[in-house]
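Slide 14.
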Amino acid sequence: MGNLLCSSIAVAVLWQTALGDCPISAPENGDLGDCPQTLSSGSSCVPSCEEGYELSGPARCAGHLSMPSCLPSGCNVSEAAVEHVLSLGNCPEWLESGESCELECESRFELSDNTSCFLGNLSEVSCLRVGPCPAGHQAVAGLCEPCPLATYKAVEGPGPCVPCPENSNTNSTGRSSLQQCTCPATFYEQRNVFDELLSCKPCPNNSAVVGVQRFGHQDCECFDGFVRVPEDNDLSLEYCRHAEPCNVSALLENLTGPEAYKLKMGSCSSYARLLPSGRQCSLLCDAGLGAQLGSDIFRAVDLTLACDDGDLVRRPTDGYLWCSEASWEVPPLVFLGITTAATILGGAAMEVRQHHFEGQYAKALRGNRGR
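Slide 15: predicted structure.
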């Protein structure tokens, strides 16, 4: 039975070969990819390769099988990311797998090792500095690296970067001077007689240095919304407390209401109870009405509320304050009447002056003719 099966398979293979079909097996370092196990005559397919290998072409069947190979991948040396490389040296732009070459480093740098390629991967090499690192740099694993933040190095040499004074920092890496160490906004400076920074001392809570002068504790000022303690600027700042709001609930309850003659909340509606220090808001009357104090329709009424550390430094005048049509309509009419009268009187005065001038001119003209 076994011999019969083998004979049948052999006959089938011979029959397919006679028809031109090609049996396929996977290439070395690859697999069949999209290829069937038997490729029809006149057709082609593409096997696949393992990582690090490249296919030399497609598989084709034309009475016989043309099978591609999986070849080791080469490396593009020009894409190597190596700092301080001057040129490719004796390296070709494309390096075959298994080969090596030597890059050329910049002056004062030397190559750590030859560059080699293996299955599409370049070996890691670096250009190591020969000699001392410049100012603002220190040697790290054979390379000159910029000084980290909050450090500096003033001179060229093998030494490390020096930390900035206490609580100070630099605005970038690679700093080369003590002068490039600065204090944060909430710290003031302590310097020696040579004007060199010694340390940065914190300002009291909720305060910071304002402006470029930060020579001492006295240069710290409270943030907006905070009050200095003690208030006397001649005394040293101890701390900054939150400014107190103003309780305006009773005032607003007395001045405002739904009635037409009552003031309306206006922009004070957000502060029905407490008005924060440093803020202000304004009351208003309904359209067509104006604020009036008692019976005085001509007096301007300030409807603004302003708070400063618990004190209402600006508020409507005490008295019977209400909204009326008269205070809205009469003052503009009076103003219009006054300006109209002033215009008429001014015009009349100019006309009288003109007549007087013409009379004087005529009299002078007659006198000249009589001579």
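Speaker note: Helices lie at 2-19, 249-255, 326-370.
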